[in-house]
Design goal:
Helix content: 40-55%
Largest sheet: 15 strands, mixed
Number of helices: 18
Radius of gyration: 24 Å
CATH topology of the largest domain: Endonuclease, Chain A
Number of strands: 15
Strand content: 15-25%
Number of domains: 3
Structural class: alpha+beta
Distance between the termini: 55 Å
Strand order of the largest sheet: 4-3-2-5-6-7-1-8-14-13-12-9-10-11-15
Length: about 475
Amino acid sequence: MHGVIAFLADLGYYVAAALTVLLAVIASGHAILYKRDSRAAVSWVGLIVLVPVVGALLYALLGINRIRRNATWLKADAPRLSGSFATVAAADRALARHLSPDDAHLVTLARYVDRVTRRSLTEGNTVTPLVNGEQAYPAMLEAIAAAERSVALSTFIFDQDATGERFADALQRATRRGVVVRVLIDGLGARYSWPPIVRALKRRGLTVARFMPTIAPWRAPFWNLRNHRKILVVDGAVGFTGGMNLRQGHLVAALPKRPVQDMHFRLAGPVVQHLMEAFAEDWVFTTRELLTGPLWFPPLVPNGAVAARGITDGPDEDFEKLRWVLQGALGVARQSVRIMTPYFLPDATLVTMLTVAALRGVKVEILLPAKNNHLLVHWAAQAQLWQVVKRDCDVYYTPPPFDHTKLMLVDHTWVLLGSANWDPRSLRLNFEFNVECYDATLATQLGAFMDAKRDMSRLVTPEELDALSLPIRLRNGIVRLGAPYL
């Protein structure tokens, strides 16, 4: 009897060992075949081999991009949403009236983004900057109050606070007037306040959906992939986008407990269709309801002087499009590159392109918050700042309160605005929406805004970074290892 038990125990051991090896081989093979970044592949294989079973399970949960397959399947199963999706246009014609001779080289960038995004550059738009909640929220609420047919709202965070209640009430009043309202909130962002506002919105009779809820165990593979877009479209004709969530902290003048500076933008003109397309794609992915026809996609006429284009980015068929756009803009720049971002964790390629631009004589300025709302992100960013500071890029720390603004200006004419940060989460994991604009007047206006920020900021010097103690540098370096998930 003891011999049988010993035999069964030995057999179980060998079976478990064989299954462990098989699991490691399958997971490692998948990482080798499908990870685009060789460093990521090496890291995952190392974890799978060195931490048996657990490493393979972590890879299955966090390392495999299922969203791309699911999104592609869902969109292939349904007709195109409006039947009026933009086609690539000739950038030369679209920009002929927008660029001076000194800026003619930006036509190359527009052609490049044509090919990256497969979406045309639109003419005849207005783009109005709105600083902090004091300017953005009244403009958004006014647009909702004036809605006659439809309201589409997508946000990462929709807090149940005084600001959230104002928007909820405005949306309810619109519904009672007969306006068709759709609200999409990220499944994780909906939980930033407690209780979440979703039930309160539904009690008001609003149609609300959560983008990939995060609680269910079978949703675990998607926990790290979030919808970070901020889009409001009213009657298919007036749009708002940028970096601002719906929460009390953006009302900086009211001195909230955690004030957050930010910038949002009001858009009118043909580019608003790009905002609506992005919302409709996310909505059909989440609910399978198709938003089609003039209710959501009315004919749009020119409404200003800005040439603009929406840029969708996410871990689906839009993977790394925004990263390619950033690379293209850095490669084209001749005079200046100005960046404002709350989270600065660029990969090696972007770091190289920033430093190459600076070494070519392009003036590169990067504005970062001196006090970050995510301490680990600040430490990780500090660990790699020397790579740009010591290569002729000027980095400034802006004073508190924390600044969440996301902007990029190139050669006093090209503007990139939207929801994405300069970090791996935005450029590889999140669903983001940005808008590129070609207009010297808009660029000058935003350049003056950045000048004011820079003038009150502190320049980060190589000497300051060299003076960091060894324990601080080690801490920062260790945190930087987890940069893709910060």
